[in-house]
Amino acid sequence: MIPAGRITSIWRYPVKSMLxxxxxxxxxxxxxxxxxxxxxxxxxxxxxxxxxxxLPGLLWLNARYTQAPPPDxxxxxxxxxxxxxxxxxxxxxxxxxxxxxxxxxxxxxxxLRPLPxxxxxxxxxxxxxxxxxxxxxxxxxxxxPLPDLSMFPVRKLAQISRYATPVxxxxxxxxxxxxxxxxxxxxxxLAPDSDFDxxxxxxxxxxxxxxxxPHPEWDWCGGTLHAPDAELQPxxxxxxxxxxxxxxxxxxxxxxxxxxxxAHSRRCLGAYxxxxxxxxxxxxxxxxxxxxxxxxxxxxxxxGAAKVKWAVMRAVSAAMPTGKRS
Length: 326
Fold this sequence. Notes:
By secondary structure, the chain is of the alpha+beta class. It has a domain of 172 residues: M1 Pyruvate Kinase, Domain 3 (Beta Barrel), CATH 2.40.33. Helix content is 23%, strand content 27%. The strands form 3 sheets. It has a 7-stranded mixed β-barrel. Strands 6-5-10 form a 3-stranded antiparallel β-sheet, with helices on one face. About 8% of the residues have low confidence.
C-alpha cells in the first residue's frame, strides 16, 4: 500500500438536493454514509424522484434531522427532518402541509417522500429519459453533443436508465463520491474567475492528496482506499451535470463552472465508488491505497466487453426519444 491522502471533510445530505451538513465523523455502509439522503422530493406529474437538476430552488433549502439518526435509518426508515426555507419558515417532514409548502416554493407540484424499502422497487423507477431531458440535466445548448457516458459499466447504464436512483438509495449513481482538494484547485486555476467551492459538487468526502496529479481520485479508480476503520473502492470519474453551476447560498450562478469542466476534464470532476468494508470515517483519517492493476484495466478496455458496452450505448441513444415527454 502507498499513502493516498487525508480526509479533510465529510458531508451528509438529509434530503436529496437540499443543503448538506458537515460531519466530524460518520458510519459508512454498503449503501453509503449512514442516514445520507433518506428523503427526496418527488415530481407528482412525472411520478418520479426529482432533484435540483430540474428544480434548482431545492439548493436554497436547508434540511436537518430533529435528532441523531438511529442505527436503522435507511430504506423504509427515514428519520424526521425539518426543512428551512429561505425566508426562515420551518416545516417538519411529519407535518401534512410539507408537500404544499414545497410545491408553493418551487412553483411545481411535488411531494416529500421517505426512502422506500428495498423491496418496493417500483417507487425507484423513472420514466424513460429523452434527449431533451439529457440536455436539461447537463445544461447543453441545442447542437452541443450529448455527454459520453462510456465510463459507466453496462449494468450501471441499464440501472440508471430504468431507475431514478439506485434501489435502496437516493444517490444519483454510486454510494460514494470522493473529491480531492487538488481537483478543485486544478479547475480553479483553469477558470480563475469562477468559485470551485466544494459545496457545488456535493461529495461524500473531500481528500487532500498532495502529489503531481491534478486529479488524484481518477488515479485511484480500480484500486482500494484503506481508512483506519473502513475500505473504499473508487471506480469511475464523476461525470458532472448542470447542478454545480446553479446559484445557492453564498454561491452565484456560474455556467463557466460546468463549461470549464467539460472543456478541460472530459466533463468529470471527482470519483464515484463503493464501500467494500463498512466502518467509520473521520476528518483527519489517513488513507492508504492499494493501487489499481493498470495492465488489467488496459486489457479490459480493449476487450469484447468494451465493444459490447459501446453497442449498448449506441442502441440506447438510437432508441431514446428526442423531445419532451407527453
